[in-house]
Amino acid sequence: MGYESAWLSYKENHTLKIPWNGSKIYADTWGKTIEAAVTELQRAVKEICGMDMGITGQEEEAGILLKKEQDNALGEEGYKIQCRDGRLTVTSQGEKGLLYGSFACIRMLQTKEEFSAEEKTEKPSAPLRMLNHWDNMDGSIERGYSGNSFFFEDNKILVNERTRDYARLAASVGINGVVINNVNVKDRATWLIDEVYQKELQRMSEIFETYGIQLFLSLNFAAPMELGNLDSADPCKEAVQQWWNDKMQELYTRLPNLGGFLVKADSEGRPGPFTYGRTHADGANMLADAVAPYHGKIIWRCFVYNCQQDWRDRKTDRARSGYDNFRPLDGQFRENVILQVKNGPMDFQVREPVSPLFGGMEKTNEMLEVQIAQEYTGQQRHVCYLIPMFQEVLKFRTYCQEDRDTVEDIVTGKTMGNTNCGIAAVINTGNDENWTGHDLAAANFFGFGRLCFNTSLSAEEIAKEWIVCTFGHDREVQEKILQMLMMSWKTYEKYTSPLGIGWMVNPNYHYGPNVDGYEYDRWGTYHRADHLGMGVCRGKKGTGYAQQYREPNASMYENVQTCPEELLLFFHYVPYTYQLKTGKTMIQHIYDTHFEGAEEAAYMADLWDSLEGKIETKVFERVQKRLAHQKEHAKEWRDQINSYFYRKSMIPDEKHRTIY
Amino acid sequence: MGYESAWLSYKENHTLKIPWNGSKIYADTWGKTIEAAVTELQRAVKEICGMDMGITGQEEEAGILLKKEQDNALGEEGYKIQCRDGRLTVTSQGEKGLLYGSFACIRMLQTKEEFSAEEKTEKPSAPLRMLNHWDNMDGSIERGYSGNSFFFEDNKILVNERTRDYARLAASVGINGVVINNVNVKDRATWLIDEVYQKELQRMSEIFETYGIQLFLSLNFAAPMELGNLDSADPCKEAVQQWWNDKMQELYTRLPNLGGFLVKADSEGRPGPFTYGRTHADGANMLADAVAPYHGKIIWRCFVYNCQQDWRDRKTDRARSGYDNFRPLDGQFRENVILQVKNGPMDFQVREPVSPLFGGMEKTNEMLEVQIAQEYTGQQRHVCYLIPMFQEVLKFRTYCQEDRDTVEDIVTGKTMGNTNCGIAAVINTGNDENWTGHDLAAANFFGFGRLCFNTSLSAEEIAKEWIVCTFGHDREVQEKILQMLMMSWKTYEKYTSPLGIGWMVNPNYHYGPNVDGYEYDRWGTYHRADHLGMGVCRGKKGTGYAQQYREPNASMYENVQTCPEELLLFFHYVPYTYQLKTGKTMIQHIYDTHFEGAEEAAYMADLWDSLEGKIETKVFERVQKRLAHQKEHAKEWRDQINSYFYRKSMIPDEKHRTIY
């Protein structure tokens, strides 16, 4: 299947003033990543400026220079860009820094940003900047909305031109780690660590390495039983430890670029240390010890909760479970273990509070896990630019210490001075021609990488970059798409579930409105709406979840007056007549936001329609179709949610609009 | 896979007084059906009485005699049984009558009914007594809850010993027609009328014929396009008519026992005459003309409705659609067309009014379609003996004429004096060891056949017969199982959706509670519950559905006072505080019936448990497991329904029981 170049589709721009002299590139050292950097520069300069750049061994005659230089402040991944006297110089201590610097120069060409004589220095914010693919070996993708996997097909590993182009896209925004298989490791995927797949993995890993990306795999904790002949996977049994030690030695011999492993254990039916009465620390440390000799990392997911809950039970609270499970283990994990924590305590809803595990753990490495696959935020059929949400999460103060206490500080290593930390995203790619199903969803892939690399960039700056790289320099196109992206998350929030309560979706699919869809189910996801009001009491008199935060957050959430209103129903049951700070009642807020949200969805469709002729027809029509669906689907959301609450409360809309 | 004999598992009973002399059977004519009758008698007498019955050509020395005799009152399927002077004589005009008479004698042996010197005459009530299998050619069964198909596997037709034993079971209760494939005819099933499958169909058809059963097939209306090279399936095009004529000539040459075809057209996505601007009559008549030379029948389903409805629309009413679509065509159908009408206007809910098409059509052959697969009535995991429901339907007076106006009269031919009429059931069998998943569900298969054969039998009489044939003569076993069967439908109704409103099930699966499951969907199936009340207004001020009935039914349903209360919410929106004839409010009725229903489910489980040791262990445990599930599941139904309505109405339970 053919595919497109996304934001690396360079647009010819011969009016661009080339800031360097001559047409030669010089590199003072060579290696496969530098070679890739040079090739990328050649290709971009050729396509954008129409200039063929040759390679020279003579520094003096070069217009573009890649120079390796000892500079601990920059590190292996940071870089300096300077353009002086007709020479554009990229400097780094490592090959990866030179590659990132080269992609930065290309982006500057794409966006017509001026090259300055002053040194422009950049160093990635998050040490680990990872993509998690939930790709299955049969080629399907769990929660994938843009076609099938380009890593797997019929239980075979695919390594081809698309693998390279994927790596180019990822590297261009600074991604340095990729987990290629689903965290739910079943059937053939368990065998990914077996010999049978190592040849293909080797080839894939080499491509990744060229682009500065470490290959990671998701592991099946029960592998010693399923692959080995062991009758147990007990992490405290010597035979099990030995099996893993041997397995890792075998793997790392063949795959030296293996970054490590991602593990979902004792969660939603996956096996784990609980089976043997062991802790998550026991489980993670056993694996960590096995990979330590090879500098491998174990990324252990904290998405652990009771998924066999009784809806009648108002004591058990799924939101509590991450903290309840992991907080007692703080300090017990090895240095090369990283806990991967979802941004919120539930599961990628359009609005959640930040997980109290951030700031709750003081002596444990943590990664932030976000999801750009839009499982609950429109599944790449609705526009939902998520970078503003991720920024809110990063800026959240945990009060774990006096300063450097935000989620950003924690996952970038500023809080504890650690380097085994970072940010991971469940990625939204598939083998669709445009990689992400919805063309505008590519902004999330691009934006995620850019944000991890430089957390000080604003969501708007990132969006602008992406738009220009993808659609070029037409001002109207830029402004309108920027407006669409920047409004999209709030718009989606408006016409879906209100005030942080979440989960009003069709079970399993997680798409489309269904207010009671999860209300009487086993997943611990309830709104508790009755005739008088709605919401879950998570304060001291309720489940006590709010007390998992440090002060003053705990008190802020505990108190209905100080609880941020966008999370009101997450923390409090309030009557429909409860007055919000806007002066509106809660029920009127629901009606108003749902009417507004549906109108905004229609407005976005209109904005796009007005760009006809300014955007490549194929792309224009692809997006137009999705926006038309979003517009209709937003009405369905509006009407179902409003009707449900009107029928329950019988409180009429003050504005007398039609509610069914 | 092994399988059991269901109600044909004869129990040894040597204390039985054998009413005939000697051990010889005599038949005055021979044919394969008579041969089958003799074989069945030999087998039963051997297994029950321990006596080997030989065959004799000398009438005088026979103890059992099968005699063909001209008797138009009996017809080909009726029979007389008389036992006098040590000779048990079965008489009929046809071979089928002799087979049915022989099975009747066997049943009398099983139930220890006395053979009388008086002539016992029986003639089947319904001319067509059919089973509709929704079996797909890949082996799956649509709405099948007892394993896979025993007719198809991997797009192949299975003909083996089980085919014969299935035919024996069906014939033993008087079934004379079987549609072997799903009414949704897709993919390979379209090819069933092609040459490639005719050899296997021939073999199957011959087995069926031996047991007096005609083979029917479900047709794809678009077959001329999919199998032929035609670019249209327009029933008014000569080429299309010719294609079908040729096809039928080919088919009937090879399959002379073919009874005809069942057609689902222009329904739920199936193709039909509407595509060409033609009527159902045009479509049905074209096929009828093609099969007429071979005495074939076209059974045309009336399950036609808009399945892309907007839930906001309160004008369109799915319940109206059968009548609206077919009533204008009354009198336009050929003599060999039969309209097959579901018992209710919706779709096999636990409680529905009778379809107004019964009595609504005056000059059209009609078949009643019921479903014993329990799609919406517990899916053969809950006990739900449906014969009482079918009897209510049959007894319903339509007032289409002064007398002989019941549904029974219509489908047995008494109303119009026709013979192309009858009753069909969507059957509940699969390749499970016990045929029907739930052992007690076999009572519905048995009972359906018995009821069609003799509509004057009571549900209780039928249940008693089945229990003795299946479980033997233990009095406690008989009484307790009878109690379970007789209470089961009402019990199921109590803990599921109340007062005739239906549809509070999980979408697609149709199992388990989900009050809003279909409320905001496209299927035209709504309860319209709000804070004040619930129900659909189907009177003159509403959708007008009630007016499709003849008087006095129309007025009875129109008036909330005279509307039967079990259908109250089907016809009327009433407030939760509406007082029922019991003096209870509607909401209190919901609470009470749901508590009662769950208690009754628990009671049934207890009843069964008390039979331990009296029933074969394997069977006992199989049923015990399902009853335990039913008991728990009934609680889930109770709690979800009660909580939903409590949360909506906030009217407390008068008895202060726990509602969540």
Automatic annotation (TrEMBL), chains A, B:
Record-stated family: Belongs to the glycosyl hydrolase 67 family.
Alphabetical list of SUPFAM superfamilies matching this protein: (Trans)glycosidases (SSF51445), beta-N-acetylhexosaminidase-like domain (SSF55545)
Domain Glycosyl hydrolase family 67 catalytic: 109-435
Residue span(s) of domain Glycosyl hydrolase family 67 C-terminal: 436-657
Subunit organization: Homodimer.
Protein name: Xylan alpha-1,2-glucuronidase
Enzyme class: hydrolase
Pfam families xrefs: Glyco_hydro_67C (PF07477), Glyco_hydro_67M (PF07488), Glyco_hydro_67N (PF03648)
Species of origin: Blautia hansenii
Source species, domain of life: Bacteria
Keywords: Carbohydrate metabolism, Glycosidase, Hydrolase, Polysaccharide degradation, Xylan degradation
Alpha glucuronidase N-terminal domain location: 7-104
Recorded catalytic activity of this chain's protein: Hydrolysis of (1->2)-alpha-D-(4-O-methyl)glucuronosyl links in the main chain of hardwood xylans
